[in-house]
Amino acid sequence: MKSEAKGLSRLFYASKYSWQGLAAGLKTEAALRQEIAALIPLLLIIFWLDISAAERSMLLLSALLVLIVELLNTAVETVVDRIGAEYHELSGKAKDLASAAVLITLLGAGAVWLVILW
After folding, report:
1. What separation, in Å, do the N-terminal and C-terminal C-alpha atoms of the chain show?
2. Range 30-117 has CATH code 1.10.287.3610
3. Domain limits, the chain
4. Do 106 and 65 meet the contact criterion of CB atoms below 8 Å apart?
5. Where are the beta strands (DSSP E) in the chain?
6. Which residues are known catalytic residues?
7. Cα-flanking dihedrals φ and ψ of residue 5, to 5°?
8. Considering only CA atoms, which of 115, 78, 73 is closest in space to residue 97?
């Protein structure tokens, strides 16, 4: 459903819906909560390390990218589940692909951390 809001009103509602989505993800998705729990000590490490601003940015962005892809994975799973509870090959494929995106993002973030910290 498309919003009729314009200008600052649109920005307000977009922000409100974004926060609602994040809250829903935190409430229902254990993986998202676990990734945020892992991010907190990583943030402390990022700002404790004696590294350049570019390296610090890469570490932070790689960690945040994991959260972004996890939220997108949750969105795909939610839409597939909304369509129907019965098994369908394409539904399974969509969920598997979204999950694979999370895995690849985690591996990529791990590689970024290894390269910078090495």
Report:
1. 48
2. yes
3. 30-117
4. no
5. none
6. 70
7. -65, 145
8. 73
